Write the structure tokens for this entry.
Amino acid sequence: MIPISTRTKEAIKTGLAMTIAYGIALQMDWDRPYWAAFAVAFISLPTAGQSLHKGALRMLGTLVAGVAALALIALFPQQRWWFMVFLSVYIGFCTYLMTGKKNQYFYQVMAFVCAIICFDGGANSLNAFQTAMVRIQQTGMGIMVYTLVSVFLWPRTSVGELNEASRKLGVVQRGLFETYRGLMTGKGSGVDSRSQRMKALQLLAQLEQTLDVAEVDSYEVWAVRHQWRRFLRESKMLMEALGRWRVSLPEIEQLDLNKLLPNLAAMCSELEMRFGQIQGMLTGEAPAQALQPITLAIDKVELAARSHFERAALAVTKTQLDRLEALSRSLFDCVQDIKGFSRQDSKPPRYKAPVVGLALDLDRIGAVVRVLSGLWLAFLIWVYIDPPGHASFVVIAVSLGLAFARFPQLPVSKTLLPAILSCGFAGVVYVFVMPHLSGYLQLGLMIFAVTFGITYLFHTPQQGLSRAFGLAFFAVLTSIANQQTYNFATFANSTAMIVLGLSLLLVTSYIPFRPHPEKAFLRLVRRFFRHAEFLISRMALDRKPQIGWKDRRKMMFYQKDILELPQKLAAWGGQIDQRLFPGNTPEQIQTLVNSLHALGLRLKDLLSARENPQSTLLARELIEDVRAWRIAIETLFQRWSDNPVTEPDADLQEQLALKLNVMEARIDQTLTLAEQEALRPEDYGNFYQLIGSYRGLSESAVAHAQLAKGLNWAHWKEERF
């Protein structure tokens, strides 16, 4: 038997499903049979679970869109401007939800299918109802056809991908721990762990996507879905904890940790064993030994000989290691549940992700503005100019706008040439091939061959959007129907409609922000420091009782956002054309992104330390000193939020050293005045963790300022079209 590659199998499955879907639609004499082809084009994915999951989202989105469209037409049958206002509200709402992280495709379908029914059906309620029914039935049929083909022909489930992603994640987590342990103990090789961190983030995203579909096509995963969700949540928390531990290490480089933390080696060995056993269980190996809960002990005699800020740095590092110990225990227990191994008698605590407050995301609002701008411009062009495609021009503008809203880093200008080439290919088939076909056997072979070719050429996950649009453009331009007509003018109008739709999308991409990567990068940097400024302004020791519910929700949202913004910055930074900005290398940009990531983690440490109760005596005596420190950092963040290229008036390193000396003396005076019984051990620990977090944030700000000086920011600020 001749071996067939996975790439070829997927192309055959998509081609066969497309041919069958067209055949059924033509046999049933349904209007616009290419709508069934759309369903096949957009849900053709490697595994049955992926296809079924996306198909379910498409079907549900189509049903909701049909109801919404009919409601809007019924409410505003003769009031087109009010109709457009409420349609804009609906599409804007869908766009905002679509640009989030959950069920993106569902909200996208809700938006563009509603536009299709509203504009293709016209103001006539009967036509709109018929359009909605045809859309629903053909979508359902296309989904059913591809699902059956994927189930019976070379079926693939997502279980293997889920297990592989989790196994790789376990390897990366263990590798990061070993790397950071080496850095802490001075035995590290100095290997850059950035690639490991990026790989871990990619694996977490892949794991989350795969888990959604593995629950659908595998009872094995469905039975332990709650444990898998817990595994995903705690893996994210573990990655954050590893990052926070990593950025705390520079402050303890000069400390003899083996003397200060006598059982540090034992804890690190236990953690390394845990990560190894987690990795082993993810590959099917039973754990070799039971967990040994361990807590770091501090040598008080050695600690007393250290300065206050050395004690503070040690307190921060100890907190990070204790967090890693607890999270690794919980993750170990979770993997035991998933893999069915015997559980320990004592259950470790399960960590819950913090609730994120509601706040408007400016990037998502920008996407809403762009989509609605395209909707209204297309509508006005249709009403007053009547472009090629007529009302379909509005539909294509909305559909393309929604598709690109999910991928903001994708330049619209780079899609024009591939779209024109796709239209040219469809034109060749439409003009020179299809008129010579007779009967569905020949037509089906042609459909299969074209679908096979497009799917085979665009086979990678990164090319999924190109593959779907290539198939969709072919279906629209050929307009296969029982009463087939061949009219070059019709084809030319359809091609012009697509090109004009992309051109309109290119214009609206400048609304409300310029689409250039360097502009987006600068905008996100400013946003990072705006959020950081807000967070640190709410950290006054005497302000906590005054924080209202609105500020608390904003703080929760901003905490989450400052940890996610470096990922967005890395994505935009990777799109900057180095030929246009030769003075700024990709390495410099990535290093700057890493510094912002470190700042975000440091700020998260400070927020966590601020939540701990502080001694009334220490807060009273040192509040002015801490306030001056906080205001200095807040002012610096405020200046960077206004202009990321602003350099400090004086050397930050010198300012920090002077402030540390003053604070050291003030802490000595305060502790000398304090009675021994007035302060509990936890009071010392909480206070040292607080000032250690402040110092860590200050050090990261210094590092960021030094890196920022090396970039040619002025070149980025130059205007270009």
Summary: The chain has a mean pLDDT of 84. The longest helix spans residues 308-339.
